[in-house]
Amino acid sequence: MAAADLVHIPDVDIDSDGVFKYVLIRVHATAPSGAPAGESKEIVRGYKWAEYHADIYDRVSGEMQKKGYGCECMGGGRISHQSQDKKIHVYGYSMGYGRAQHSVSTEKIKARYPDYEVTWADDGY
């Protein structure tokens, strides 16, 4: 996969409302050996259906591998998405993956939701 193809992967895909788990994932092109090759990018994925952070990572990494990309989970947390109030709050951590760098996640979310108030904190679970 060419590094330019990474631009076709959305930076953010989260549920439209509610409180749910999320993970920050680094996606990279892979060499024929399966080793990381070239550029990479971080993506944010968060869904209410996930009981565990690993549920999200397993599904997304499986989808990315089918497209020829490798993945690495950079951590997780929770997202409170209040669509009526146009507010998103990123916080907490994943027991399995540790705390994501919420500042990176919120910058990506702000770009996806420019008319929202997007905040983050390391507090909470």
TrEMBL record:
GO molecular function, one term: actin filament binding
Pfam family, one: Ocnus
GO CC, one annotated term: nuclear body
Catalytic site: 53 (proton acceptor)
UniProt KW Transmembrane helix keyword: no
InterPro entries cross-referenced by the UniProt entry: Janus, Janus_sf
Binding residues for substrate: 21
One annotated GO biological process: negative regulation of T cell receptor signaling pathway
Gene3D superfamilies the record matches: Janus/Ocnus
Protein name per the record: 14 kDa phosphohistidine phosphatase
